[in-house]
Design brief:
Length: 385
């Protein structure tokens, strides 16, 4: 049930006619008891109209419902795009008897196309009428673009539940990605608390993945918490459940990367600092040469060394001493303390693990990435045509 697994949440997914395919393309998630919430947004300087409007709403009120449309990003659409995003929020608010500021609007699709706002408004009315506790799967299906299928996750704590749904397969790279995520929980949180739990979970999950190194104009992760479980406060348990759901969804996004056939698990230890470990892991995860080698199941560790040694950090590159560096592929050491071992691992699976020990300190970080394939080029060469 994904976003409706926690008590007090309802959802729906409908066909509003936004996508030529005729598939469902508009979803609503609502908390029936009053909720509190927060969101983490794209850091791209080009921000879509729904991001602008929803940021403003969250500064004014606690979110009670989320409206998501596929088929149109409503990004780079000027003043009209912002007016259309606001009209969408107003339309759902009327249907649900909420204040406009209590509605978060999210959009995904082609950048630069005007939002068919009348279709969105009609779809929002339909979706509001179909809201149910069993509507989580329908909602998860209605937000997809090039995804191969819905992405959902659930984690249970003592007496409470965290559920989530996501879409995302391309234009994936922190901070964040062409990725829309809604996470719900019936755990009790007070006003102003949601962000302090959401942001660390996002940092360790959605901000540690890359499909193609491109950062979207629309991405968002929204958390709603309504306390309907009546569970006793156990913040450590909430942290664990949030991280579990976000990490699960993040891995699904990478595994479903456009054209992807291999998931790269990159681990860096022994860095001079945690920030430098993350920089090196990110550089490896986004290297086209590493990613194409993964597609070919080629244990080309030279490409990994190249990427590790050119990881931007501060005013230069992250610290690295080749004589202290060791690299392993799927547990087989291929480079040890500055010299090749001669070992040739067989990389035939759908997951490739790359581990680096820099031998400089205690900094560590992990990253998930997908390979780069012929199909990725085909999908994106034909995206608007």
């Amino acid at each position: 049930m994904s976003v409706t697994a926690a008590k007090g949440f309802v959802a729906s997914g409908v066909t509003a006619g936004l996508r030529p395919s005729g598939l469902p393309d508009l979803a609503v998630v609502r908390s029936v008891p009053r909720a509190v919430g927060a969101a983490v947004w794209t850091t791209n300087r080009v921000q879509a109209a729904p991001v602008t409007v929803s940021r403003r709403h969250l500064a004014q009120a606690q979110p009670q419902a989320v409206l998501i449309n596929a088929g149109c990003a409503n990004a780079a659409t000027g003043a009209q795009g912002e007016a259309d995003a606001l009209a969408s929020a107003e339309g759902l608010a009327r249907a649900l008897d909420l204040a406009t500021e209590e509605v978060v609007v999210l959009s995904t699709g082609v950048i630069g196309a005007p939002l068919p706002v009348e279709k969105v408004l009609s779809g929002a009315r339909m979706a509001a009428a179909e809201l149910s506790a069993d509507g989580g799967e329908a909602a998860a299906s209605a937000i997809l673009t090039t995804d191969s299928g819905p992405k959902v996750a659930i984690a249970n704590g003592v007496g409470f539940t965290v559920g989530g749904m996501a879409k995302g397969a391309g234009m994936i790279h922190p901070r964040l990605a062409t990725m829309l995520v809604v996470v719900t929980t019936d755990y009790p949180l007070g006003e102003g608390e949601a962000e302090k739990f959401l942001r660390p979970a996002v940092e360790q999950s959605f901000n540690r993945i890359s499909v193609d190194g491109d950062c979207s104009t629309n991405d968002a992760v929204v958390l709603l918490a309504n306390g309907a479980s009546g569970a006793a406060r156990d913040d450590a348990a909430l942290v664990a459940a949030l991280e579990a759901v976000c990490s699960d969804l993040a891995r699904q996004v990478v595994a479903d990367g456009e054209g992807a056939t291999v998931v790269l698990e990159i681990g860096v230890t022994g860095a001079a600092s945690e920030g430098e470990a993350e920089a090196i892991a990110r550089r490896i995860a986004t290297s086209p040469l590493v990613k194409t080698a993964a597609f070919g199941h080629d244990p080309n560790w030279g490409r990994v060394l190249m990427a590790a040694g050119s990881a931007p950090y501060g005013d230069g590159y992250a610290r690295l001493n080749t004589d202290r560096l060791s690299v392993s592929f799927d547990g087989v050491e291929v480079f040890s303390l500055g010299a090749p071992t001669g070992n040739v691992p067989e990389l035939s699976g759908a997951v490739c693990r790359i581990d680096l020990d820099l031998g400089l300190g205690d900094g560590a970080a992990g990253y998930l990435a997908s390979d780069l394939t012929y199909d990725y080029v085909r999908i994106n060469a034909e995206y608007t045509t």
